[in-house]
Each structure stands twice: as structure tokens, then as C-alpha cells.
Write a structure and sequence with these properties.
Keywords: 4Fe-4S, Iron, Iron-sulfur, Metal-binding, S-adenosyl-L-methionine
Family: Belongs to the UPF0313 family.
Strand content: 5-15%
Pfam families: Radical_SAM_N
Shape: globular
Radius of gyration: 24 Å
CATH topology of the largest domain: pyruvate-formate lyase- activating enzyme
Cofactor: [4Fe-4S] cluster
Number of helices: 23
GO molecular function: 4 iron, 4 sulfur cluster binding; catalytic activity; iron ion binding
């Protein structure tokens, strides 16, 4: 066993001698035998099918652990009425890691109006129903049944956002920390590379039968939460007090207090948090620190197969979306009140080096499945690559780096991002490069040369942006820029598109039934769209996903300052707002969206398809990322027929004025 020090990150790197990376992580005893492994150290149980791509935590964390000397196997989408599927590779030596997958299992199954979805992009053949509701809880109990006394570590977006008391939209009730229902030993929240490695290292030292209390094992591990008592907190630690579960049950306003407190805990990243639950307490270690550039390069430079495991006969739909996308960074400075990204990935940006990204693109050109077009180069927001805070984030009191305006301490050289895209474009075998993950248009306007380049060079006919609404009071509650910023962006986009001689389209994300949004606000949005000849084909109805500030506002009926607000709580009220922009949704006999979670797009002109670098209908990011950011009911991009009665150009065409 080795313990070395990474001087660039000032973080201990724990592990054993690296193992050779397999073509795929094993899913069967036969595959283990081919690798010469007689047992596993760690078993991953996931609600997704196994695609060996860094967009999937089981693949990314699994290969990371193999690189540090631990033998990892994967059980993907096991049956949940028997533990038999978990037994195929035997009992793991250290622990089992459980996740619902890249998307919350409840969002995977239900639309904003609680209708069953009919597909699942993370399952062979796209078939729905291959994971249970509340998959983290179900799988954890399966592990307990299969392997008594084995430590169980839960993680992923579903577990991470349920680490303290949370509102559950699907039952309209408060629920305790997921630790209690899952009976897991701990939850790894946020980005889990070092938490998982540290847990593996400590358990490797003590052994699963040592009897050492988990609270002792975990005291030095960042980014985890577990059940204990106040006495288990480290001496002299900075303590953040979260209202107890019972206090929140007694007073709905306390959920807002708890949510804002947890948000500060993540941002400051220098203390422990505690939430009492009955006679016990949820103890939350300080969040994981962002990976250094060197660590990001190591992680994303591992030899992922970039495709599905060969055991699957049917195609897994998400594979096509991921094959042509490149992740440059993680984290988002936006801090939007409905978005879980800042709570899960954090507001601090962790970026890869240009050299690492270029190597991945070079490798991609040798893939026989690659057609020469890169659908996306980016992250949560494409133009935040290499961004950093010039101030001390631990002392920053802002809830967003972008709201009410872009912070002067948020430093990002967007021109360097453009140089990266241009250099990728020059690589032999690359036909075109697009930015499909979208850009922060308020940030883009801070650097005109970058906005010009995004528009003229790297928009493949359509550019996704997220105004969400046009009423400033609603936008303020969302922590989004005001209407003036969006209209300035549209004017610039039109100007640069015309200069490039390109017919281009803005794909705006819009939202209904947001807490504080009234019918009048939706009518104002509808009038604004109609005045521009815009007709949305999909609007997202707000879903109160666990952990966000907007969800606390929905449940308590208050804004962040405690002021009472209007909330569309019933399905009838939510549908009424939605019908203002989408009259057919939810009505009998309508052909409304079946709930596919891909980003919606306006229907583009048929003229556009013949243009160089034509419209990109495929979402270059994984759907799990879209869910993490938005949590709304969406459907795939569509194209407008010339006989639709709307003319021969898209109603969302920026040149159609």
C-alpha cells in the first residue's frame, strides 16, 4: 500500500500499486477470471446500464479506483425482487457502492405532471422500467440482503440531493435523510473521486470485520455524510447548524433555512454541518475540494472504451449522444435557484488542460464510429472553461457568481476557449466543432470577440440558451439575468449571424409554474413570444427536485427572504400556467410530449439542412447532466414543416424579424 503526495493539489493520494486497466470493468465471474482477479475489492451497483464513458459515475469512479490499485466490478440494473444478480461476482472485500444512476430514478419515471415516461435512454433498447422507483434505497437493501455486514456507500445525484431533510414532490411530503431509509453507512455527496478513494484506503487498512465505528473511519474523509451524534464531530471543527428534521416538519419555513444553510456549507467548504433527526444526527463532512487540472487530466485520460459493454445486444440510446461530445470542465458559477449543479458539482470550476482535451479529440478521430463532427465541447456552461474566483470563495457571501450580475471576481478568459475550439477544428479528421451544451449569454456578452466567434463559427444552426422567463421579478427569484440581458444577446446574435451569412436559430429554455410566477407572468411571457412570432414547441414545467432553493420556496410558499409568494401547487394550477404557452399539453387526445428528457428545440426551417454545419438536433451532453441542471419535462428537438402555417422560416429564427 502506498501513500504519496500530489504537490499540485496539496492532497494525499491514497491507494495501492495501480492495476492494468481492463477493456471493460467486469460484469461477470468469467470476465474477472480473464483479468486474473479472484475477488473484487469494490462492487458498483447502478441504475444505468454499463456504458464505459466518463459521463457515468460507475465507469469514471471504477476506472479511477482501478488506477489506484482496487479491483472493481459492476452490476448494472439488477432485478430488485431478488439479490441473485448481486451475487454473480461474489462478495466484495471492502464495500459496495450504490447509485440510482446518472438521473434521479423518480425523474427517470415520471413527467412534471406525474405521468409515466415511456422510454429510458440509459437502458438497452431505450425501454423504461429497468430501474425501480427510489432506486438508491431499493438497491441498498438488496446489498444488505446479499452481503450482510458489508459496508454500503451510496452516491450519485439521487442520494447526494437527499442527504438531509428534503421535500418529495411525488408524495407531497417531507422525507428524512436518505441515509435512514437506505440504511447505508454513508452517502458520498458531490464529486466522489477522493471520497471513494479515501474510503477504500481506510477500509483496506481496518478491514470490514475490524469493528471500528464508521464515524471514526470517516472523520478525515471530505464529501461524505453519515449518521452519528454531536460527540462524533471532530474536536475544534467549525460547525454549521442545520434545522432539525422535526423543526422543519413543524414549520415549513425552516426548509428554506435548511436549504440556504446547506448551500453555504457547500460554497464555504471549510466546516462540518449537523442536522439532528430524533435522537441521532446527520453529520456532513466538508465538501470535496475541486480537482486540480492535473487530477482532471488524469481522470479523463483513463482508457474509457467510450461505448456500451459488449454483453448488451440492443443499442443503448445515450451512447450516440456521448460519443461525439468532449467534457472540458465541471462545476457552474451560476447558482440558479432551481438548479442542483452548484449543490452537487459546486460553483468552483475544475477544468482540464488544453493538452488533455486535444489528446481526447485525437483519440476520437481514430474511432471507427466517429463521423468527423464533434457535437459539443463544454460542460454545464460551455464558456466557463478555466474560470476561477479571484477572491477567497470561503469568504464570499454571494449565492451566485452570475446574479444579480456577473461578479467582477469571477475570472474567465473566454478567448482561450475560442482558441481551443479553433485548434480542435484544425485536427485532421475533424469536419466541424459545435457547442451544444449552451453558453451563459450574460457571461458571453462580457467578451464580444467570444460571443462573435460562438455565433459565427461554432453554432451549428442552433444555439441553446436558458432565459427561462422574461419577467424580471420571476428571473430574480430564479437568480437569472434580466430581460434586458437576453434581448441584448439576441440583437448581438442576429448581427453576427447576418455577418456570417448564416440562417441561425436560438433554442431558448422556458419554464412555467416556477414559485412566485403567476398566470399574469405567463401571459406576459406569451405576449412577448408572440410579438416576435415565436411559438414554443416545449416548455418545461417546474419540478420541485430535492435540495434546491426553488423547491424550498415551492414547499414553504416563501422567497429566500421569507416573504410570502404565490405558488402554483396543484396539478390544475400548474397545468393552467403551462397551457398559456402549451395549450395541448395534458389535454385528452393531445399528442403532447411523452416525457423524453432531451432539450426541446424550435422546429427549424427546411432550408437550413443544406447549409454548411447545419442544425444539430442531437443533445451533445448526457441527459443526466440536463436533469441535474433543470429537472423539467422536456422532449427532443423537432423540425417545423413548411406547411405549418408559420411561414418558411423558424419562428425562433433570429433573422426572422
Amino acid at each position: 500500500m502506498t501513500k504519496t503526495w500530489n504537490h499540485n493539489s496539496a492532497r494525499p493520494v491514497l491507494g495501492r500499486a495501480p492495476l492494468d486497466q481492463p477493456e471493460f470493468l467486469p460484469m461477470s465471474k468469467k470476465e474477472m477470471e480473464k483479468l486474473g482477479w479472484d475477488e473484487l475489492d469494490i462492487l458498483f451497483v447502478t441504475g444505468d446500464s454499463y456504458v464505459d464513458h466518463p459521463s457515468f459515475a460507475a465507469s469514471l469512479l471504477g476506472r479511477w479506483l482501478v488506477a489506484h490499485g482496487y479491483r472493481v466490478g459492476i452490476v448494472a440494473q439488477p432485478r430488485w425482487d431478488t439479490p441473485d444478480d448481486l451475487l454473480v461476482m461474489g462478495r466484495p472485500r471492502l464495500f459496495a457502492s450504490v447509485s440510482a444512476g446518472a438521473i434521479d430514478s423518480m425523474l427517470a419515471h415520471y413527467t412534471a405532471f406525474r405521468k409515466k415516461r415511456h422510454d429510458d435512454a440509459y437502458t438497452p433498447g431505450g425501454k423504461a422500467g429497468s430501474r425501480p422507483n427510489r432506486a438508491t434505497i431499493v438497491y441498498s437493501n438488496l446489498v444488505r440482503s446479499a452481503f450482510p455486514q458489508l459496508p454500503v456507500v451510496i452516491g450519485g445525484i439521487e442520494a447526494s440531493l437527499r442527504r438531509i431533510t428534503h421535500y418529495d414532490f411525488w408524495t407531497d411530503k417531507l422525507r428524512r435523510s436518505i441515509l435512514l431509509d437506505s440504511k447505508a453507512d454513508c452517502v458520498v455527496y458531490g464529486m466522489g473521486e477522493y471520497a471513494m478513494l479515501h474510503l477504500a484506503h481506510v477500509l483496506d487498512q481496518y478491514g470490514e470485520t475490524s469493528g471500528t465505528p464508521f464515524s471514526y473511519i470517516a472523520q478525515e474523509v471530505r464529501g461524505i455524510a453519515y449518521m452519528g451524534s454531536r460527540e462524533d464531530l471532530p474536536p475544534q471543527a467549525k460547525i454549521v447548524e442545520i434545522p432539525s428534521h422535526e423543526a422543519i416538519e413543524a414549520d415549513a419555513k425552516q426548509l428554506m433555512t435548511a436549504t440556504l444553510t446547506l448551500e453555504r456549507h457547500v460554497q464555504e467548504a471549510d466546516g462540518w454541518a449537523i442536522q439532528p433527526v430524533g435522537k441521532r444526527a446527520v453529520l456532513l463532512a466538508p465538501p470535496a475540494l475541486p480537482l486540480s487540472e492535473e487530477e482532471m487530466d488524469e481522470l479523463y485520460g483513463l482508457p474509457y472504451a467510450k461505448t456500451q459493454h459488449p454483453a448488451y445486444k440492443d443499442t443503448i440510446p445515450c451512447v450516440a449522444m456521448m460519443t461525439t461530445s468532449i467534457t472540458t470542465h465541471r462545476g457552474c458559477g451560476g447558482g440558479c435557484s432551481f438548479c442542483s449543479l452548484a449543490l452537487h458539482q459546486g460553483r468552483r470550476i475544475a477544468s482540464r488542460s488544453k493538452e488533455s482535451i486535444m489528446r481526447e479529440v485525437e483519440s476520437l478521430t481514430h474511432n471507427q464510429r466517429f463521423n468527423g463532427s464533434i457535437s459539443d465541447v463544454g460542460g454545464p456552461s460551455a464558456n466557463m472553461w478555466q474560470a476561477h474566483c479571484k477572491a477567497n470563495p470561503e469568504k464570499c457571501k454571494r449565492k451566485s457568481c452570475m446574479h444579480p450580475k456577473v461578479c467582477s471576481q469571477f475570472a474567465v478568459n473566454q478567448a482561450e476557449g475560442i482558441h481551443l475550439l479553433r485548434d480542435i477544428q484544425k485536427i485532421k479528421g475533424i469536419k466541424n466543432v459545435r457547442v451544444a451544451s449552451g453558453v451563459r449569454y450574460d457571461l458571453a456578452q462580457k467578451e464580444e470577440t467570444a460571443l462573435r466567434a460562438y455565433t459565427m463559427e461554432f453554432t451549428g444552426g442552433q444555439l441553446k440558451v436558458a432565459p427561462e422567463h422574461i419577467c424580471d421579478s420571476v428571473l430574480h427569484s430564479m437568480r437569472k439575468p434580466g430581460l434586458a440581458s437576453f434581448e441584448n444577446f439576441l440583437a448581438a446574435f442576429k448581427k453576427y449571424s447576418e455577418q456570417a451569412g448564416k440562417e441561425q436559430y436560438v433554442i431558448p429554455y422556458l419554464m412555467s409554474a416556477f414559485p412566485g410566477c403567476t398566470d399574469n407572468h405567463m401571459h406576459e411571457l406569451g405576449n412577448w413570444l408572440r410579438s416576435r412570432g415565436w411559438q414554443p414547441q416545449q416548455v418545461q414545467c417546474f419540478i420541485p427536485t430535492p435540495g434546491t432553493v426553488a423547491t424550498a420556496a415551492y414547499y414553504a410558499g416563501i422567497d429566500e427572504k421569507g416573504n410570502k409568494i404565490a405558488v402554483a401547487r396543484t396539478d390544475a394550477e400548474r397545468l393552467r400556467q403551462h397551457h398559456i404557452l402549451m395549450p395541448s399539453v395534458g389535454r385528452k387526445g393531445s399528442k403532447a410530449s411523452r416525457g423524453n428528457r432531451g432539450a426541446y428545440a424550435a422546429k427549424g426551417s427546411e432550408k437550413q439542412s443544406g447549409k454548411k454545419g447545419g442544425s444539430q438536433n442531437r443533445n451533445g451532453q448526457s441527459k443526466g447532466k440536463q436533469q441535474t441542471k433543470r429537472g423539467g419535462s422536456q422532449k427532443p428537438a423537432q423540425r417545423r414543416s413548411n406547411t405549418s402555417g408559420q411561414g418558411k422560416t423558424s419562428p425562433f429564427s433570429i433573422n426572422n424579424r
